[in-house]
Design brief:
Blueprint lengths: L4 E4 L2 E4 L2 E2 H8 L3 E5 H14 L6 E5 L6 H9 L3 E4 L2 H9 L7 E3 L6 H10 L3 E4 L2 H13 L4 E8 L21 E2 L3 H10 L3 E7 L10 H19 L6 E3 L16 H11 L6 E4 L3 H4 L3 E12 L4 E5 L8 H5 L5 E3 L20 H17 L3 E6 L8 E8 L6 E4 L20 E6 L2 E6 L4 H4 L8
Parallel strand pairs: 4-20, 5-6, 5-13, 6-7, 7-8, 8-9, 9-10, 9-11, 11-12, 12-13, 15-17
Antiparallel strand pairs: 1-2, 2-3, 4-14, 14-15, 14-19, 16-19, 17-18, 20-21
Helix pairs in contact: 2-9, 5-6
The protein binds ligand LLP.
Ligand LLP binds next to helix 10.
């Protein structure tokens, strides 16, 4: 748990604001962010990179709320975008286009035009065909497009397969062995200017090894390019640093950066990083209220007012998010972990589960499946959680700042949650709860 979200007595707070006050004022479900946590994370990157004039390009997809982008823009951040929409958000939030890198395998001509007109720092080009299209689009408006190739280093990020991007079989980047040929081609295209090289091998990495392996391969490529007379201005090593959701032990930001800098020793190219989750993941929680407690034959359900449309990560990746009561009634048992049915550690996990269940009986709490109102069995926020709750209790779903709101949907015609940013003892509504009218405003009946 980030220190910006904590208990004071039995009340759970974001900075100096009780979450219960936020629920009373803005309702639930509601995302709550801590400005201090955002600033702290960004500060850790800049401190670790002191003396190098790096560019930290916050990965907008992790959380694209304008208030969050604005906090980072004021700290001098650049931005990693993957769509024209994200570019518009960055500009609306006061971000500097000259610090924007544009990633993604499917940039449309319209998006390229928009980014060229805005004057972004560079396009992270992911294929031969994209190189050609970018050259044509830039030529059509008499501009030169700054280009970096996103190279796929074929390194195993050792993370969830859906968020692993640096293996040969993934759709991302240009194949390592074709990179030099494509750089030659880029050099010869009249409307492109080569500025750098880029890689991003995956997300929620909990070890430095794969980052180092990828960086080393990129450095070999830079040497080959230098020998070809193709100098580069920057190296972009992407994002991907993991956070602690449960019992993961990712490297601290300072250690991750130190490991990268060790690998880059003696290199003069500017370093760009694209962190998303490491900056916002533990700077946000999802606040939700228990609607019903529903005892079942095999499991007890706590039906809450947040659902898979609000926080998709559990349904999509079987991701774990810690769930804590906003008002602690009794001492709860230690952090529950969903027990694996088989495999390494299964017996130990079952043992722990039995202890948690015994604790739960003692403390008047129960083991709940925390689920939402959406009509899908996959609609769960957490399995087998030991909670002491009653209907109307508030719960905080932790580590929800990254890929929470930004991946939310309107499934089941559920208006998206409100978003609040806490700053010391102040709370600011940074996105109003959607209304149903907004959801169908663009829809039409036929005659
Ligand atoms: N740069 C590029 C090119 C990316 O594709 C990503 C994330 C990042 C940077 C930022 O990665 P981060 O530092 O946040 O790991 N929805 C998934 C994560 C998808 C990540 C996609 N790319 C999740 O909820 O775990």
């Amino acid at each position: 748990m980030s220190s910006y979200f904590h208990y004071r007595g039995n009340q759970f707070y974001a900075e100096q604001v009780p979450l219960a006050d936020i629920a009373a004022q803005f309702g639930t479900p509601c995302y709550v962010y801590s400005r201090a946590a955002l600033e702290d994370g960004f500060g850790q990157f800049t401190k670790a990179l002191q003396g190098r004039e790096p560019l930290i390009c916050y990965a907008v997809k992790a959380n694209s709320n304008l208030a969050i982008l604005n906090v980072f823009a004021r700290l001098g951040a650049g931005f990693d975008i993957v769509s024209g929409g994200e570019l518009q958000r960055v500009l609306a939030a006061g971000g500097d286009a000259r610090k924007v890198v544009f990633s993604g395998v499917g940039k449309s001509a319209v998006e390229m035009l928009m980014a060229l007109e805005a004057g972004i720092l560079c396009f992270n080009v992911e294929s031969d065909a994209e190189l050609e299209r970018l050259n044509e689009v830039a030529g059509s408006i008499g501009k030169i497009a700054p280009v970096s190739l996103r190279v796929n280093p074929d390194v195993d990020a050792k993370t969830h397969p859906y968020i692993s991007t640096g293996l040969k079989q993934s759709k991302f980047g240009v194949p390592y062995n074709e990179a030099v040929t494509l750089y030659r081609k880029a050099r010869d295209l009249p409307h492109l200017r080569i500025t750098g090289i880029d890689c991003h091998i995956g997300s929620q990495l909990t070890e430095t090894g794969p980052f180092i392996a990828a960086a080393e391969k990129i450095l070999l490529l830079i040497d080959a390019l230098t020998a070809e007379g193709i100098p580069l201005e920057h190296i972009d090593l992407g994002g991907g640093l993991g956070i602690c959701y449960n019992n993961e032990t990712p490297p601290a930001i300072a250690d991750y950066v130190a490991a990268l800098l060790g690998t880059l020793r003696g290199r003069s190219e500017k370093l760009i990083l694209e962190p998303g989750r490491a900056l916002v993941g533990n700077a946000g929680v999802l606040l939700t209220r228990v609607e019903y407690l529903k005892p079942g034959e095999e499991k007890n359900f706590a039906i809450v007012d947040a659902a898979m449309n609000d926080l998709m990560r559990p349904a999509l990746y079987d991701a774990f998010h810690e769930i804590l009561p906003v008002e602690r009634k009794v001492k709860t048992a230690p952090l529950p972990t969903p027990p694996p049915l088989a495999g390494e550690g299964a017996i130990e996990q079952r043992g722990k589960q039995a202890i948690r269940e015994a604790d739960a009986r003692k403390s008047n709490s129960s083991i709940y499946e925390v689920v939402g109102p959406v009509c899908e069995t996959g609609d769960f926020i957490g399995h087998a959680r030991n909670l002491s709750i009653t209907p109307q209790s508030l719960l905080a779903v932790l580590s929800a700042g990254a890929y929470g709101m930004s991946m939310s949907s309107n499934y089941n015609t559920r208006p998206r949650a409100a978003e609040v940013m806490v700053d010391g003892n102040a709370m600011h509504l940074v996105r109003e709860r959607e209304t149903v009218q907004q959801l169908y405003a663009g829809e039409k009946l036929i005659s």
